[in-house]
Design brief:
This protein has helices at residues 4-7, 26-29, 38-55, 126-130, 164-174, 178-189, 196-213, 216-230, 267-279, 295-311, 320-328, 340-352, 356-370, 413-422, 441-456, 468-477, and strands spanning 254-257, 260-262, 282-286, 290-293, 314-318, 402-408, 428-439, 460-464, 484-486. With 490 residues, the protein is of the alpha/beta class. The protein has a four-stranded parallel β-sheet with strand order 6-7-8-9, sandwiched between helices. Helix 5 runs antiparallel to helix 6.
């Protein structure tokens, strides 16, 4: 009997246990000749009751082979309740298996199951997640990539914080108050209390204004004082007083845009072009909407350009680079089956765009292809608005920008519309203002609207080569928050 394990001595025989239902009473199991006292009888009955209850318990888990661990733990909460295992000190023997070690992720008191593999859906331990390498740091946004980038912005340190007079002078000049601007800058150039950066900027603005007004003598006098004060060479004088391009002013000039195919069916377009040219002394031609060019169309355009130059009127091109690129793709050196008029139109465009290096190279290839004498470069009397005019300090003209030139006043809607069309297929939009002499506040506001609109489309914008006065105006109006401003070397 189970209870005899801890109630009987080793030399006593074990009792035969009968099922509880068939068990006789303890009173009848003892000899009648020796009746038990009442207290002893109660004790025997209690022991018999405990033995009967113990017989109903399952001890196979604790008496199994040595391969099975001891199961003294509580069953999982989800299982049906069972009577607790009755564990006594005698059960703790040297032969009993050791208590299973607690693995990671297990709590004390849980049932050990070493033979059972871990469930495949078990989540990894939190420590494993912590051991993963941290993600790489994110790059800071541009400047405007591109856009910029978006855009890759250039934040310029403004010297205006210590010298508001510089902003004032730029605004006065933009509003055609030249004398007031000149007086303000001359006073600032002699102000010894200004920081060095602000003082130097005041001198550069003054030099720029002297050039725009054609004041050579005053420029040269100031140049000597500048060299002494800053111990550096002053800029060279460049007379800009006569540079004024009416084509870039509001209401100035006639506008005509070629569209579609420039071929032998383009006669009506050329009729409209000639009518527009006769109405004004300034003509703007838009090339960005041309799809194809044939030999007949190239010949008609070459003839028109030749006749128009004889009038001495101003000619302005928009998106000339589109036409030049198209013509270059239609000809090949040594292939004389191409229409000769395509070569002649390309040479005309290089001539009018002041692209002498490209002109001379193309002229040589034209000579090789058709075995004729190459045309000679002729210095243009007036250049188009897309090309800076030659000057003593002019740089080599880049071919990757939309050019502004002269004095830009009023809304200048057509000008900025052309700039918007130029930027349509570009992620980086470069606008060169090297030869912009003046820009008033209305034009500056429309220019800023254009730049903001292009930036909202995810484009990067660079305003290249502003003069000191134009640069001061752009910074005053907040262009540095919308575009990169690349100042000229002066």
């Amino acid at each position: 009997m189970v209870f005899s394990r801890f109630t009987k001595k080793d030399n006593e025989p074990s009792k035969t246990v009968k099922p509880a239902s068939a068990k006789p009473s303890s009173a009848s199991a003892r000899p009648a000749s020796a009746p038990l006292p009442a207290s002893a009888k109660a004790t025997v009955d209690k022991i018999d009751q405990i033995e009967a209850e113990m017989m109903e318990l399952d001890f196979t888990k604790s008496s199994g082979g040595s391969d099975s661990p001891r199961s003294a733990e509580k069953p999982p909460a989800a299982s049906a309740p069972e009577p607790p295992a009755f564990e006594m000190p005698a059960a703790k023997s040297a032969t009993a298996p050791a208590k299973p070690a607690i693995e990671h992720g297990f709590n004390p008191g849980a049932k050990a199951a070493p033979a059972k593999p871990a469930a495949p859906s078990a989540k990894p331990a939190p420590a494993a997640a912590k051991s993963a390498p941290p993600p790489p740091p994110k790059n800071p946004p541009p400047p405007m990539q591109g856009v910029a980038s978006v855009m890759m912005m250039e934040v310029q340190e403004s010297p205006f914080e210590a010298a508001p007079v510089l902003e004032e002078a730029a605004i006065l000049y933009a509003n055609h108050q030249d004398e007031a601007a000149l007086a303000a800058l001359e006073d600032a150039s002699t102000d010894k209390t200004l920081p060095v950066a602000s003082a130097r900027q005041a001198w550069l603005l003054l030099f720029d204004l002297y050039e725009n007004l054609g004041l050579r003598e005053a420029f040269e006098t100031a140049a000597l004082q500048f060299a002494v004060r800053f111990e550096t060479s002053p800029p060279a004088f460049n007379d800009r007083s006569k540079l004024k391009d009416p084509a870039l002013m509001t209401g100035g000039g006639q506008y005509f845009a070629f569209t579609g195919h420039l071929d032998n069916n383009a006669g009506k377009q050329f009729e409209q072009l000639r009518k527009a040219a006769a109405k004004d002394s300034v003509l703007r031609i838009e090339f960005g909407k041309i799809d194809t060019v044939a030999g007949e169309g190239a010949e008609m355009l070459t003839g028109f350009l030749k006749d128009y130059r004889k009038t001495g009127h101003d000619l302005v091109f928009s998106n000339a680079d589109h036409l030049i690129k198209m013509l270059n793709g239609m000809i090949d050196t040594g292939r004389n089956t191409d229409a000769e008029s395509l070569w002649l139109l390309l040479l005309d465009m290089y001539q009018l765009q002041y692209m002498q290096t490209a002109f001379e190279e193309t002229a040589l290839n034209y000579c090789i292809t058709y075995e004729v004498s190459p045309p000679s470069w002729v210095e243009p009397k007036k250049t188009t608005a897309n090309t800076p005019a030659p000057a003593p300090t002019t740089m080599q003209v880049p071919q990757d920008a939309f050019y502004l030139k002269g004095e830009i006043e009023g809304s200048a809607d057509e000008l900025f519309k052309s700039a918007s069309e130029y930027a349509a297929d570009k992620s980086l939009v470069v606008i060169d203002v090297f030869d912009v002499k003046r820009m008033d506040f209305i034009a500056g506001g429309n220019f800023l609207n254009l730049v903001s609109s292009l930036r909202a489309q995810g484009k990067r914008i660079e305003v290249r080569n502003p003069s000191p006065l134009i640069n001061a105006l752009l910074m005053t109006m907040g262009f540095t928050g919308q575009a990169t401003i690349t100042k000229r070397n002066k």
